[in-house]
Amino acid sequence: MTTITPTLAATEQPLHFHATRKAAAPSVDARQQAWPVAEVQALLDLPLPELMHRAQTVHREHHDATEMELATLLSIKTGGCPEDCGYCPQSVHHETGVPATKMMTPEEVREAVLGAKAAGASRFCMGAAWRAPNDRDLEKVEELVRVIKDEGLEACCTLGMLSGDQAQRLKGAGLDYYNHNLDTAPELYGDIITTRDYQDRLDTLGHVREAGIHVCSGGIVGMGESRAGRAGLIAQLANLAPYPESVPINHLVKVPGTPLADELDLDPLEFVRTVAVARITMPTAKVRLSAGRRQMDESTQVLCFLAGANSIFYGDKLLVTGNPDVEADRALLQRVGLKTRHTFNA
Ligand code: SAM
Ligand code: DTB
Ligand code: SF4
């Protein structure tokens, strides 16, 4: 399969499944505290040494700062997606040269899971280019989830919108995490995607949560948003009650043919700040340094680790674009002195 080469180069409106400070009942669970956008923006605006110190303090209170989770990603159904997400190479609305494929078989998926396990991944995430799965698709995905669980890895998938019943079925198959990103701040959403709205995303997250599946939800940085836009995204995530167990912070991968291909480069330190603020506002979550590492220099990645990122995608490919080579990642983790499940179970 081809790997696509990328180009080089606030709101406080209450929404359903969104806790405002007023609505939040006094709670024994510190995870339920709400974050006004202005407070999140104030964190983003801190001098970097102060922000990093706060992020590292929170990170160490809740995690072993020398551990890194490795998750491997597999596109089980690529391309031909009817949605018009402006960043995405798999949308039929953009001429990116990504061909639509059929869904992978359980045998193909097992082979990929075995490879990921042998390379040291502890979590396996399957992505499909759907607006929402139909019931026949879902039955096949349930079988694929069982393949991952048979091999002893944590199972995650990202399939688009889910109904409550579909979420229950995935839970029954053993799914550990469901990834469904809010992607950007509510007020910017309509500039990036027109075929669904923010509330659709929140509804699916609600169904996932109700089914007892861990929520994986984050967004994309570098789509032309301001700091206020990044604050709006982080506040939305941090105010989910409870906030997601897993928060992917993606850097936009600029793919030729997508409307965002010519977006201006973001200062890498703005990306690092966003990771740090995600860590501070969602202390117990896995903060995942996700798409865009291939285009990032290693020092920026290390700053993200120091800002509290404790999970990466591991494997030479994301869905259709490239990721750093496994050997390069192993060498980087070793140079920084980070342990993975492989090393901390050894
Ligand atoms: N179709 C499903 C959906 O949108 O929820 C699942 C797959 S979709 C590719 C998963 C996520 O990948 C998106 O929500 C977005 O955050 C991320 N993504 C897609 N294209 C990207 C790009 N070019 N750069 C960074 N992240 C991207
Ligand atoms: C997430 O937040 N990032 C991953 C995963 N969830 C599914 C996807 C990144 C996609 C990057 C562009 C591509 O290769 O299609
Ligand atoms: Fe489809 Fe998901 Fe890509 Fe949007 S991000 S076009 S929903 S595959």
Structure characterization notes:
- The chain has 346 residues and is of the alpha/beta class.
- It has 12 helices and 9 strands.
- It has a 9-stranded parallel β-sheet.
- Helix 5 crosses helix 7, helix 8 packs parallel to helix 9 and helix 9 packs parallel to helix 10.
- The longest helix is centred in the middle third of the chain and has 16 residues.
- The radius of gyration is 19 Å and the shape is globular.
- The chain starts with 36 loop residues before the first helix and ends with a helix.
- The site of 6-(5-methyl-2-OXO-imidazolidin-4-yl)-hexanoic acid has 16 residues, from strand 7.
Q: What is the rounded distance between the termini?
A: 34 Å
Hetero ligands: S-adenosylmethionine, 6-(5-methyl-2-OXO-imidazolidin-4-yl)-hexanoic acid, iron/sulfur cluster
| SS-derived structural category | alpha/beta
- Per DSSP, the total helix count is 12
Stretches where pLDDT is under 50 for at least 5 consecutive residues are 8-31
Query: What proportion strand?
Result: 5-15%
Shape type: globular
**Global Rg:** 19 Å
The helix fraction, in percent, is: 25-40%
User: Kindly state the mean pLDDT as a whole number?
Assistant: 91
Order of adjacent strands in the largest pleated sheet: 5-4-3-2-1-9-8-7-6
Beta strands, count: 9
Give the ordered list of helices and strands. Answer: HHEHEHEHEHHEEHEHEHEHH
Largest sheet composition: 9 strands, parallel
